[in-house]
């Protein structure tokens, strides 16, 4: 049976998984042949983390239609909880790195999911730009609070303080989170394979949710909240569901990200980080999962590729960002696109606005 | 006395937020977009003034003028090149473009001026005000910042209510299509709003750097976010709301810094915003929008 005979939904699902798996093998083979530079191979785990983050944020922004500007906050909740969990487990004598990672990722995801749920309850009462600013505010609050967290572990168990590391009252053991200095001495247990696994799990969760009854309800709420409400869909429940699931997935991605570095600080997970993830989602296309994967990977690699022109790379990045958004809206591009489209398909011309579709605004 | 001094310092910081928030709120009102690059215009304004005064040796007032003109032009150019083609695009695309502009300005500043912080020498060289036999000292910068904010507010209110351009501006933000039918040139009105907002951002940048003299390429981003928060707090799209939101936010921030915790001040500010929005979802002075089915 050819791929064209499948339902469009199934086809796009298969393509999405295929992209990830093919990318994994391609990178592994290239790496084995020595084609991948050191700086790029150092980026492999962050790429996986960002892909997961983009896919999970797409669930909120694209599928559920809410603009969230605080995704990095949930990422950091996951990251720091995961680091603490891994620190405790190591102390308890767990040695298997895979086991440690899986436990940390699960605990990070659960913690971020719980925080996401709690944040979601007030946030989901608001709409549009007000919702956006409140998610931004929560992201900043999470960062600010984590900047004041001091957590250590010794034989007596966990110690927690919000003043400084000396008030933890520890004589031995290890300080896991040291306020603004962040988490130090993390075991670097993230690997590319684990990253790809997390990406696949994230994609599976999001795609399955999208194609389920609940997912259709979420999209119905996005497309027309009032109509959805009038056919008996519990609007708050479904918005909250998308937000919580996305937060939990972001938490797991945060663990993956954190476990790739020996040190992470709360200020890394600031507003700019949230924006970065949002850029991936918008560039990849709202509600388009494979688009998020490709754009997250591409935009994480782009600054690395531009590293030889170090000073100008972020400038070029900014210009690329602007051009990608502006060029499709210029008249010349639209005329060209129309010409190409009618040449290729010999179909009647469709207006560009209608062909793009997928706008999430109410 | 200490409380009073803190409140005045807060009002001064809040005035800076208010001036920045005016730019946010006017642009939002008319173009329905969150201009995230607005915070970086502040930084550009401060750099222009810094260069004019420190490198060219111009008098402070000339530096301010140069900076206002520079930012006004910058605002118009950015609007023409980056935002105008996206007039009918989904709002998120415009948001991403604004972020692109923000990155661009920050990195251009990084390349031109370097990453090391510049120490901005205050352009206000007046002695501090001593009240109650010297028990209360108010810096001249604080006084001038608050005065500037009041003057700008009054001028802007007069402008939007009395002049033809100002009325056109309000008409556009009320209903862009209807305004166009009435013969208002929407494009030039939007350009003008960007020009005014960016010019104000330059003033805000200079005033802010006079009070907090570290100038870096990222100087504008946090005040930008705070001012955006202030605009939403006051009810986005509302000019008096932006002023009220800005001043309130500044006072809350300084009081939280003095009496709760220096590190947690930002968290307190954002928490206040969240609580306010839950009580009044459209902001303090915003009009609740009724949904039509």
Structure description:
The complex is a heterodimer of chains A (about 350) and B (about 290). Chain A is mainly alpha-helical. Chain A is about 65% helix and about 5% strand. Chain A has a three-stranded antiparallel beta sheet with strand order 2-1-3, covered by helices on one side. In chain A, helix 4 packs across helix 10 and helix 5 runs antiparallel to helix 10. The longest helix of chain A is centred in the N-terminal third of the chain and has 27 residues. The radius of gyration of chain A is 22 Å and the shape is globular. The C terminus of chain A is likely disordered. Helix content of chain B is about 70%, strand content about 5%. In chain B, helix 5 packs antiparallel against helix 8, helix 6 packs across helix 8 and helix 9 packs parallel to helix 11. The radius of gyration of chain B is 19 Å and the shape is globular. At the A-B interface, helix 6, helix 11 and helix 13 of A face helix 4, helix 9 and helix 11 of B. Chain B: One of its GO terms (biological process) is D-alanine transmembrane transport. Chain B: It is a multi-pass membrane protein. Chain B: Belongs to the binding-protein-dependent transport system permease family. LivHM subfamily. Chain B: GO terms for molecular function: L-isoleucine transmembrane transporter activity; L-leucine transmembrane transporter activity; L-phenylalanine transmembrane transporter activity; L-valine transmembrane transporter activity.
């Amino acid at each position: 049976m050819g791929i064209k005979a499948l339902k469009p939904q199934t086809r796009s699902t298969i393509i999405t998984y295929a992209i990830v798996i093919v990318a994994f093998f391609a990178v592994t083979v290239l790496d084995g042949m020595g084609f991948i530079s050191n700086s790029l191979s150092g980026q492999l785990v962050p790429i996986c983390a960002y892909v997961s983050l983009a896919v999970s944020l797409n669930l909120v922004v694209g599928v559920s239609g809410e603009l969230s500007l605080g995704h990095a906050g949930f990422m950091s909740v996951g990251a720091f909880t995961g680091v603490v969990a891994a620190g405790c487990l190591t102390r308890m004598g767990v040695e298997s790195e895979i086991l440690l990672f899986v436990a940390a990722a699960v605990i990070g995801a659960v913690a971020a999911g719980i925080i996401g749920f709690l944040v979601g309850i007030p946030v989901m009462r608001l709409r549009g730009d007000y919702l956006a600013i409140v998610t931004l505010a929560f992201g900043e609050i999470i960062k600010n609070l984590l900047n004041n967290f001091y957590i250590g572990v010794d034989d007596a168990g966990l110690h927690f303080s919000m003043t400084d590391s000396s008030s933890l009252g520890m004589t031995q053991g290890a300080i896991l989170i040291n306020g603004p200095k962040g988490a130090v001495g993390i075991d670097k247990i993230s690997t590319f394979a684990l990253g790809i696994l997390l990406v696949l799990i994230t994609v599976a969760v999001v795609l399955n949710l999208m194609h389920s009854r609940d997912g259709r309800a979420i999209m119905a709420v996005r497309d027309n909240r009032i109509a959805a409400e009038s056919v008996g869909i519990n609007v708050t429940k479904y918005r909250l569901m998308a937000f919580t699931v996305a937060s939990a997935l972001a938490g797991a991605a945060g663990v993956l990200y954190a476990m790739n570095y020996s040190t992470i600080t709360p200020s890394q997970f600031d507003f700019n980080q949230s924006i970065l993830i949002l850029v991936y989602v918008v560039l990849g296309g709202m509600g388009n999962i494979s688009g998020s994967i490709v754009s997250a990977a591409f935009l994480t690699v782009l600054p690395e590729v531009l590293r030889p022109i170090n000073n100008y790379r972020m400038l070029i990045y900014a210009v690329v960002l602007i051009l990608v958004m502006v060029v499709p809206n210029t008249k010349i591009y639209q005329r060209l696109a129309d010409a190409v489209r009618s040449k290729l398909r010999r179909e009647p011309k469709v207006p560009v606005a209608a062909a793009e579709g997928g706008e999430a605004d109410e | 006395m200490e409380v009073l001094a803190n409140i005045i310092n807060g009002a001064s910081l809040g005035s800076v937020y208010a001036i920045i928030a005016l730019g946010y709120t006017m642009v939002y009102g008319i173009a329905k977009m969150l201009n995230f690059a607005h915070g970086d215009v502040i930084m550009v304004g401060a750099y222009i003034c810094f260069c004019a005064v420190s490198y060219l040796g111009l008098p402070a007032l000339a530096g301010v003028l140069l900076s206002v003109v520079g930012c006004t032009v910058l605002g118009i150019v950015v609007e023409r090149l980056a935002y105008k083609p996206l007039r009918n695009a989904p709002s998120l695309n415009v948001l991403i473009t604004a972020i692109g502009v923000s990155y661009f300005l920050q990195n251009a500043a990084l390349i031109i001026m370097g990453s090391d912080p510049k120490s901005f020498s205050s352009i206000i060289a007046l002695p501090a005000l001593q009240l109650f036999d010297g028990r209360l000292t108010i810096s001249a910068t604080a006084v001038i910042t608050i005065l500037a904010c009041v003057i700008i507010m009054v001028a802007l209110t007069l402008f939007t209510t009395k002049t033809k351009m100002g009325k056109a501006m309000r008409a556009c933000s009320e209903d862009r299509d209807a305004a166009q039918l009435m013969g208002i040139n929407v494009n030039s009105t939007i350009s003008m709003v960007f020009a005014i907002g960016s010019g104000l951002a330059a003033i805000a940048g200079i005033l802010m750097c006079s009070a907090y003299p570290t100038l870096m390429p990222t100087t504008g981003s946090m005040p930008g976010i705070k001012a955006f928060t202030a605009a939403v707090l006051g009810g986005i799209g509302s000019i008096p709301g932006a002023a009220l939101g800005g001043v309130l936010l500044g006072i809350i921030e300084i009081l939280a810094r003095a009496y709760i915790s220096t590190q947690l001040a930002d968290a307190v500010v954002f928490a206040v915003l969240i609580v306010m929005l839950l009580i009044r979802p459209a902001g303090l002075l915003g009009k609740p929008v009724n949904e039509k089915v």
